[in-house]
Amino acid sequence: MATLKQRLHRKNAAGTYDAIHLETSADLVLMTDGSTKLSDKIGAMDTAISGKAAASHTHTTISGNAGTATKLATARTIRTNLASTATASFDGSGNVTPGVTGTLGVGNGGTGVTSIQALKDALGITAASKPSTSITIGGSVSMGAFDWICVHTDSSYNYLMTKYVIGSTTFGQDTNYAGSQAALMALLFGTAIGVWGNSAFGNITVNGVPGYCFLPSYDQMNGGFSYFNSNDRRKATDPAGNAKVYWTSSPYSGGSYVYCVYADGGLNFNNPGGTYGFRPCVALKR
Predict the structure, then answer these.
(1) In this predicted structure, what is the pLDDT of residue 262?
(2) Cα→Cα distances 147→2, 73, 120, 134, 238, Å
(3) What does pTM read for this prediction?
């Protein structure tokens, strides 16, 4: 039991002071709340602070929902790898690159299939068949619901170009055919008419881009394809007969432009962001 000690002084007959000691049990001391046991107060305080964390501490287990959270001291990145099906663990110590799984449905912006052939089947696209008519340079060919002209031939292929300018597009963000809107248009058109991956057609590389359907280069339009030996033969219209300017796949040698064939058949150039005609080619195996 705690003891309260007090010391008093009393003057004696000799004129000096004697010390008088008083001792009182702590349980007789009146607390401010009316209680008398100091030991109970100290015990209650010990219980209240028991298990409280230090100012600096680490949590090993946290349960419940946090209202807010502090951010990582070092920012991390998360990038999806569409070519991977692997998962990625994230503990904040580094960047992560998770993969994906499953097939994205049409309703979510995908195709719902896992191959080009399956996509063609789903769209009802049949492979373009080899024309039965004899093909000669300058001769007309009907194939895949389009009219074509044979513009060149060699030991391996008959090169066919659409008779008309069949659409329009910007070339792209810059003068590079690779990755351009024009190259994408050629890919989509070739897929739609069934020449993509078709064994009857060649996969031809033009300006660094391989494809079953392509825009001809400046050199091909400037006599490399033997049919195009004059401005008159380069001129083209849309199916309604309107004269059209159309893209080649070649950058202009003198600056940030792309070569085009103008309405008069002359070769000139335009800004790649402009919208001009789309007139593609394919290479049919002989």
Answers:
(1) 98
(2) 112, 63, 22, 15, 12
(3) 0.58
